[in-house]
Amino acid sequence: MSQTETLAGSLDTGVNMTTHRTDETMAPRQDPPRTSGGGNAQLTVLAGPTAVGKGTVAAEIRERFPDIWISVSATTRKPRHNEVHGVHYLFVSDEEFDRMIADGELLEWAVVHKAARYGTPKQPVLDKLAEGRPALLEIDLQGARQVRETMPKAQFVFLAPPSWDELVRRLVGRGTETAEERERRLETATLELAAEKEFDVTIVNASVREAADQLVKLIRSPHIPGKS
Ligand code: 5GP
Question: From atom 18 of ligand 1, which residue's Cα is the shortest distance away?
Fold first, then answer.
């Protein structure tokens, strides 16, 4: 079984944080080569269940901490009314997404909620890390697992809801999905919650501002058990 270690007291932020020593569930972290392009900056991957607020926390960081670069994903999903191409996503056709895969342009990609494809363009991530700029990916669990294979030295942060009921409330409250889509997302969320132990650190998203502060602390000073 994984050991867990609670850091809430030592980090003094009011956000519940737990680190996981996942000896059985994660690949060894001792000696994989860094594939970041040679810079000293750290890549942080934020994942968590649907509607937990990953996008909101990322938006808060974009707003308040502009030195932290946040990857813009490509997706085949249609834009929502307030979304801007190139800011929230690169909205691409199925054909363009196929081309990006074929040309090896994506660091990872996945079909999310059985509905659309999402992927992280690779080159911008490598460029930012080589520049020494901290980089954040806000992606789903399948994508996080792929990045763990290709960039094992990245820091993997799980954003958790305060409770299941709160997660359902947030999903219903958002009002952007149909009932059928909501069902599908809750199914996915059940599986996603079970994956928490695969991550280096958990942040409980009780307050967006505090969760963002906590994540920024980790981005600037990674906390990966077993590594300095
Ligand atoms: P939404 O459609 O609500 O913007 O996002 C749906 C899900 O797709 C979220 O869980 C989000 O984290 C995930 N997602 C966004 N960008 C990427 C990406 O580049 N790769 C992967 N694997 N998932 C992504």
Answer: 119
Domain of residue 211 covers 2-70+134-220
The number of CA neighbours under 13 Å toward the Cβ of 53 is 25
Sheet with 201-204: strands ordered across? 3-6, 17-21, 201-204, 155-160, 43-47, 135-138, 69-70
Name all residues whose Cβ lies below 6 A of ligand 1.
50, 54-55, 73, 77, 108, 110, 112, 118-120, 138-140, 142-143
Residue 225 is assigned to a structural domain of this protein: no
- Type and span of the H or E element at 35: none
The preferred substitution site among 43, 45, 56, 75 for testing ligand 1, maximizing ligand atoms within 8 Å of CB, is 75
Residue nearest to atom 17 of ligand 1 (CA): 139
Question: Is 107 part of a structural domain of the chain?
Answer: no
What are the mean pLDDT values of the chain's consecutive 10-residue runs (228 residues total)?
Answer: 34 46 37 40 90 93 95 97 93 98 98 90 96 94 95 95 89 76 82 93 97 96 64
CATH number at residue 196: 3.40.50.300
Tell whether pTM > 0.85: no
